[in-house]
Specification:
The complex is a heterodimer of chains A (261) and B (325). With 261 residues, chain A is an all-alpha fold. Helix content of chain A is 76%, strand content 0%. Chain B has 325 residues and is α/β, with parallel strands linked by helices. Classes of the chains: A mainly alpha (261), B alpha/beta (325). Chain A: This is ABC-2 family transporter protein.
């Protein structure tokens, strides 16, 4: 598994690069903590008026927030910075070097940049998730746990594939940073379960930007309300999206090389 | 010797949008896009033997870089065929990529914020080198390029020259059989240019690797490349020895005279390039050289006389401004 060895090397490089700025970790922790506090405050305000929100209880929503931060951190540790760098490399022409390497270009591009300190998001997200489970003594058995991990995996694959598709657009339209802004705006909506949004937005968040699968579905799984079929659907869709992103990336590479086929 | 590169009528044309100046034109072009085809490389054919060092000459936009990019697998040609080490480059087979390297003078592959050695380590993993291979090659390159204390510095703290040395080392860790060097000495000072040049020469002798090099600096090509390929407007103008290029394209000779006393007007002998005191430089048509020299020796009191080809830069310049000879 050369991809795995590459992953290790890039993580080491990322660690080396950022270890010089240890104080950044504290800043990151502070920033994430502040972000999380404001979201939790919003939840508290909502639940001071009502007992459930679209069928979600406070503890379940806190778990959802935890998952939201876990996924956010995961994107920001590697996927987002790497693909952002890839877009810069397209502009500067440094991408040529990636193509002369005897390794899968998509793998190289996806790993190229690591922001270790963004693991703070993952850390705080995990804390929120665990605390909400323990405090409300939600029963999370093996089944729910397994479902949750599967749902999280499917969501991660979908978000990654989605980013690859967005980044691949750079082969045609040099400047796609703006499209990434759209992703972030949509992702922010994932702090609430998508079920509470009006229909059109719900569908956008489910099928266009896979926020529902990345955050809501895993949260449903952990609170024991995800059905087997919705999980299977998520896994199936993850496979389809991944295959599509892979195909699209290849088309992009061919375009870059100026191949007419 | 075996042929490692075989190119047959290789061509590349781009379709580029055409747009007039001004707001109106740019709005129109949003709706109705006019395009035009630019032929960057036109039916170039050549073959290169293992171990050769070939210099590509040509003005900006001549098609040198496009050719190198096709040979290193970055670009797909629009016509013709090419075989490099038996591979079709643009298929980008991993076995092919492991045997070549590309260095581009104006771009960098080292990671900016971390020590050089860690970027090297990344390449070790990408090229799947064993620790022993890596160690051995690293030591060799460190010695040849005098990298010693640079390895532990972050790339951003290096001077351009130091960075280029490291870039070259990073590109050679996997012992490629073919080196594509695109303007490797761009922007470097004279002594660093010479240093890099000597290194490429040594490397070629030591490993027998084939080198294809483009450069703006004639000195690079003069020092390194027994064989030159001249490309202009995407077409191959010349392929052969540098000396033959000079013979073919230089229509004039330069006469440098050292006279016993400063002379009046010398223009009756040829075109006066410079005249300072007793020293003068003249330019005469090649076929008249013998006759003019004889006349000068007869009519003037000459201390020293030297017949030479004009500087290569000048010849190349003439070639390009004339187009085809």
């Amino acid at each position: 598994m050369n991809a795995l060895r590459l992953l290790v090397v890039y993580f080491r490089i990322g660690l080396l690069g950022e270890a010089q700025y240890r104080v950044n970790f504290l800043f990151q922790l502070f920033e994430t903590g502040l972000g999380m506090a404001s979201v939790l405050a919003a939840i508290w305000v909502v639940f001071s008026q009502t007992d459930t929100l679209g069928g979600w209880k406070p503890a379940e929503l806190t778990a959802l927030i935890g998952i939201y931060f876990i996924v956010l951190g995961s994107i920001n540790v590697m996927v987002a910075p790497s693909l952002q760098k890839f877009m810069e490399d397209i502009v500067t022409g440094n991408f040529d070097y990636t193509l002369t390497k005897p390794a899968d270009a998509q793998v190289l591009v996806s790993l190229s940049e690591v922001r270790i300190w963004r693991l703070a998001d993952v850390l705080l997200g995990a804390v929120a998730l665990v605390v909400s489970i323990v405090r409300e003594s939600m029963v999370v058995g093996w089944v729910e746990g397994g479902k949750f991990l599967l749902a999280l995996l499917a969501g991660a694959v979908m978000v990654y594939s989605f980013w690859i598709v967005l980044a691949t657009l750079a082969f045609w339209f040099i400047r796609v940073e703006n499209i990434l802004q759209i992703f972030w705006a949509m992702y922010t909506a994932g702090r609430w379960p998508v079920g509470i949004y009006p229909g059109w937005l719900k569908w956008t968040l489910t099928l266009v930007v896979p926020v529902a699968f990345a955050v809501t579905v895993p949260a449903e799984a952990v609170s024991g309300r995800a059905s087997g079929t919705s999980l299977l659907g998520a896994l199936g869709l993850a496979c389809v999206l991944f295959a599509f992103s892979r195909w699209f990336w290849r088309v992009g590479i061919r375009k870059y090389a100026g191949a007419s086929s | 010797m075996s042929t490692v590169i075989e190119i047959d009528r290789l061509s590349k044309s781009y379709v580029v949008p055409v747009r007039g100046a001004g707001v109106r034109a740019s709005i129109v072009s949003l709706v109705k896009r006019k395009t035009r085809t630019v032929e960057a490389v036109k039916e170039i054919s050549l073959s290169v033997e293992a171990g050769e060092v070939v210099g590509f000459l040509g003005p900006n936009g001549a098609g040198k870089t496009t050719t190198l990019k096709m040979l290193s697998g970055l670009l797909h040609p629009t016509g013709g065929t090419a075989s490099v080490l038996g591979f079709e480059p643009w298929k980008r087979n991993n076995d092919f990529l492991r045997q070549i390297t590309l260095v581009m003078g104006q771009r960098n592959q080292l990671i900016w914020d971390i020590p050089v050695i860690d970027s090297f380590d990344r390449n070790r993993v990408i090229y799947r080198l064993t620790r022993e291979e890596y160690r051995e090659r690293l030591d060799e390159l460190v010695e040849l390029l005098e990298l010693g204390e640079l390895l532990s510095k972050p790339v951003r703290n290096l001077s351009l020259g130091e960075r280029m040395k490291c870039e070259v080392a990073a590109a050679l860790l996997h012992h490629p059989r073919i080196l594509f060097l695109d303007e490797p000495t761009l922007g470097l000072d004279v002594s660093m240019q010479r240093r890099l040049r000597t290194f490429v020469e040594q490397y070629n002798k030591r490993t027998g690797a084939t080198v294809l090099l483009t450069s703006h600096y004639m000195a690079d090509v003069e020092a390194l490349c027994p064989r030159v390929v001249v490309i202009h407007h995407g077409e191959l103008l010349f392929d052969g020895k540098l000396a033959d290029l000079v013979r073919k394209f230089s229509a004039q000779k330069t006469l440098v005279l050292e006279l016993e006393e400063s002379q009046e007007d010398l223009s009756r002998f040829g075109q006066v390039v410079s005249q300072e005191g007793s020293r003068a430089t003249l330019r005469v048509p090649k076929q008249d050289t013998a006759e003019v020299t004889a006349r000068i020796l007869r009519e003037l009191k000459v201390q020293d006389l030297n017949v030479a080809d004009p500087p290569i830069d000048e010849i190349i310049d003439q070639v390009f401004s004339r187009g085809m000879a």
